[in-house]
Amino acid sequence: MNQRGFTLIELMVVLVIIGIASAAISLSIKPDPLRLLRQDTERLSQLLQVAQAEARADGRPITWRADAKGFRFSRRSDNGLSLDTFQGDPQLRPRPWQSTPMHIDIEPRQTLVLDAEWINPPLRVLLSDGQHRLSLQRDAAGVLRVVSAP
Q1: Which of 1, 26, 68, 121 would be a feasible disulfide site paired with 101, CB 3.0-4.6 Å?
Q2: Which biological process terms from the Gene Ontology are attached to this UniProt entry (predicted)?
């Protein structure tokens, strides 16, 4: 007599394989929050260096502002009457954070202004996604580095 169908053990093995595959897919789809925060912090470090170089070359200060959703650079136009927000600039255009909502603390002041000076006061920008915290620190020589915050 020839029986058709699957045994219980064969069905269990198939269900285990499906479970493992779906777990692997769901883990790869959800990004690591610390990795996203680190990418945001490193991208900010690079863009602050670009903005600092632009302020030195142009002679006009550039202001950096951020909120929970993103950040932007701005400076006064040549005539001083309007505000240039770098909308068409490929590097300094407004950008969203990858990890939102983002909490930002700036020490020692709340408004970060990049000017033409070659020697800048030390600066610390603390970025937090609610779970993790990273600090972007600038020393007096203008070197920016990403540091894990306590």
Answers
A1: 68
A2: protein secretion by the type II secretion system
